[in-house]
Specification:
- It is elongated and about 80 Å long.
- The longest helix is centred in the middle third of the chain and has 20 residues, at 158-177.
- Helices cover 44% and strands 9% of the residues.
- The chain has 435 residues and is an alpha+beta fold.
- It folds into 3 domains: 10-89, Double Stranded RNA Binding Domain (2-Layer Sandwich), CATH 3.30.160.390; 97-206, DNA polymerase, domain 1 (Orthogonal Bundle); 217-422, hpI Integrase, Chain A, CATH 1.10.443.10.
């Protein structure tokens, strides 16, 4: 912050690097400069013993002279005992959290050069924050509202939840600076949410280093049967994720245009989406949707191709597994609910449910990738082939540069064997011969 007593200049306001700068005139006037370059006026005042941050507009639309005039007028009103009246008179256009997030991202994303990070920022908010906060007036959001967004994933996904909390906090901070809300930030951790939620680091440690609970291989066929009894698009997406060993985000964002080898796959008006065996069907995931930033080719087993063929098609809908809103993918929670439903069905039938054999916790969708990796190792499939199926880096940079194949045909046989195992047509412990 600029030294106390030192006044701002118009030149400094226009050129100052990211930070917070006090005008030093005693009116509590501050200039906030965001990393994206956005500049906002805020006046810090005290009304009825409570500190308030009043947004005065954006620089240079509101000049230094205008901001000082507004700050002086506000200070005079407070000194005359008209502080409460001043606050009531500050009626502003309402803005929803979703709108505030879009406005914030318009500036924030300009400063991110990594496409993956840009996509993650938006996806995290859309998946977890918007269902609870998206339609709320950003000026009325309280701690209880933020908790409603965080609590469903706080213990199950501590790392994701911690990132989500920080991103909600920054959106609400932008809304305060832009003049759409006042008071303390309800997503603040210290002295606020820290008193209501366990620390993310402690949750990660308790979960054994943050590993996702996996499905025991001995339970796989029983789980597959239980999942088959769960209806809805979420269960279909979870079956497809299991058959392809793909990440939840890759499946939820899958588009029909990424599927090759399915006749009429590009024709959304064909409700049957006929398939001729699916012997050579592949799923080509573009680089911008992959964690590693590289295109990933998934050979689809006959079971995976048949699942796609059974799905309903909606004219004009590009997504294979659309969410409730047209053009938007389903949330990660939808897959989690399908996983929980299968677990509940097994319990209701007198079974033990589907628990991670190490931690004893119920298996989660992402843990299916670990189950696949364990199965591939036990069955004797080559390590590189299994790692490629999971879209992991194989070998060092030089080795990757010289590798000219993704072993698609070899992996097709592996994925067929994995589908047979899930469907109960193969036994645990049966080792295949590798040529």
């Amino acid at each position: 912050m600029a030294p106390r007593g030192k006044r701002l200049t118009a030149r400094l306001c226009a050129s100052a690097p990211p930070g917070r700068y006090s005008d030093g005139g005693g009116d509590g006037l501050l200039l906030y400069v965001k990393p994206s370059g956005g500049r906002f006026w805020v006046q810090r005042v005290t009304v009825d013993g409570r500190r308030r941050d009043l947004g005065l507009g954006r620089f240079p639309a509101v000049s230094l002279t205008d901001a000082r005039a507004k700050a002086a007028a506000n200070k005079k009103a407070i000194a005359e005992g008209r502080g409460a009246e001043l606050l009531r008179a500050r009626v502003r256009r309402t803005m929803t959290f979703a709108e505030a997030a879009e406005r914030y991202l318009a500036d924030k994303l300009k400063g991110l050069t990594n496409d993956k990070h840009r996509a993650q920022w938006r996806a995290t908010l859309e998946t977890y924050a918007f269902p609870a906060l998206g339609a709320l007036d950003v000026g009325a959001i309280a701690t209880r509202d933020v908790l409603r967004a965080l609590e469903p994933i706080w213990e199950a996904k501590p790392e994701t939840a911690a990132r989500l909390r920080g991103r909600i906090e920054r959106v609400l901070s932008w809304a305060t600076v832009a003049g759409f809300r006042e008071g303390e930030n309800p997503a603040r951790w210290k002295g606020n949410l820290a008193e209501l939620l366990p620390a993310p680091a402690a949750l990660k440690k308790a979960a054994g280093g943050g590993h996702h609970p996996a499905l025991a291989l001995t339970d796989a066929a029983r789980w597959w049967q239980a999942l088959g009894e769960v209806r809805g698009m979420g269960a279909a997406a979870l079956r497809f994720a299991a058959l392809t060993a793909a990440r939840s985000g890759e499946v939820r964002g899958a588009r029909w245009a990424e599927i090759e080898g399915l006749p009429h796959a590009q024709n959304p008006r064909n409700p049957q989406n006929p398939i001729a065996g699916g012997k050579a069907a592949i799923w080509r995931i573009p680089a911008e949707r992959m964690k590693a930033g590289r295109e990933h080719v998934v050979p689809l087993s006959r079971a995976a191709a048949a699942l796609l063929a059974s799905l309903p098609r909606v004219a004009g809908e590009a997504l294979i597994f659309p969410g409730a809103r047209a053009g938007r993918p389903m949330s990660d929670m939808t897959l989690a609910k399908a996983m929980k439903a299968a677990h509940a069905r097994d319990l209701a039938a007198g079974g033990p449910g589907f628990l991670d054999p190490r931690s004893g916790r119920p298996a989660v969708p992402h843990g299916l990738r670990s189950s696949f990796r364990d199965w591939a190792a036990e069955q004797g499939w080559p390590r590189d082939m299994a790692e490629l199926a999971l879209a992991h880096d194989v070998g060092n940079a030089v080795e990757r540069a010289y590798r000219r194949t993704d072993m698609v045909q070899q992996r097709r046989a592996m994925m067929e064997a994995w589908a047979a195992f899930l469907e109960g047509r193969a036994e645990v412990g049966k080792v295949v011969a590798i040529r």
